[in-house]
Amino acid sequence: MSDMKQENINSTKYDIPPEIEGQVTITTLDKIYNWGRRSSLWPIMFGLACCAIEMICTAASRYDFSRFGMEVMRPSPRQADMMIVSGTVTKKMVPQIIRLYNQMPEPKYVVAMGACASGGGPFKERYNVVSGIDKYIPVDVYIPGCPPTPQALLHGLISLQRKIDTQSIKEVRWYKKEPIEAIPIPILGPDIIDPREIELIQGYTQKKLEKLEQSESPSVGDVS
Ligand code: SF4
Fold first, then answer.
1. Which residues pair with residue 83 across a beta bridge?
2. Closest Cα to atom 5, ligand 1: which residue?
3. Residue 11 CB-half CA count within 13 A
4. Which atom of ligand 1 is nearest to the CA of 145?
5. Phi-psi region of 83 (alpha: psi -120 to 50; beta: other; left: phi over 0)
6. Which one in 24, 29, 37, 139 has a CA-CA gap of 20 to 30 Å to 184?
């Protein structure tokens, strides 16, 4: 193990006798657990729009995010633990993105890459685009830019690693006793509908219908 890695892991700073320095490391469970996860984040392989080109470029030889243990882009959500939402999130794609997110095992992280994924970008409030993926799934890191450069994406990924460094095995959601509920898949109709709001929408529609019927029914004074 190199000196740098040993320095990273040995957070407790106990003095280790020089004769066993190369063989022994003293650390905390959180530190070693986080170090393992932050060094082997496997992104799910999918892209949505122009930002995806920058993501592909970041994975290629010039920037090469395999230096951070992230080169194993997985085509199956079951083998991935990081989702880079790279591009414009259309209403048509939201159900698919949430389905993929639900199929990823915990622990999992989401990076919103670029203005579109973070808040709608240049297409904000158009009829076919949502104003950020964080309206549907939890986002850990936002990367500004249209598109963000490979350097910006790398910075975002390093920020995610820093966030993982601060997590504690005692508090993370995937070790809590309560089961983690899957995010309901929105229904794509004339607009996108959250299934949790169906009762609310039905109630509202019913009220409107009753009002309309009342206004159309003949009044008492009508002769015809
Ligand atoms: S943020 Fe810009 S570059 Fe990225 S998907 Fe949107 S329009 Fe394309």
1. 110
2. 87
3. 12
4. 1
5. beta
6. 37
- DSSP H/E element including 214: helix 198-216
Ligand 1 centroid–CA 204 distance in Å is: 36
Q: What is the pLDDT along the chain (224 residues), one digit of tens a residue?
A: 444 455 555 555 677 778 887 787 788 888 889 998 999 899 999 899 999 999 999 999 899 988 888 878 899 999 999 999 999 999 999 999 999 999 999 999 999 999 999 999 898 888 889 999 999 999 999 999 999 999 999 999 999 999 999 999 888 888 888 888 899 998 887 778 888 888 888 888 888 888 888 887 766 555 55
- Residues composing the chain: 224
Beta bridge partners of 76: none
Cα(first)–Cα(last) distance of the chain, in Å? 95
Q: Are 86 and 54 in contact (CB under 8 A)?
A: yes
pTM: 0.81
Q: Nearest C-alpha to atom 6 of ligand 1 is from which residue?
A: 116
Q: How do 187-188 and 141-143 pair as beta strands?
A: unpaired
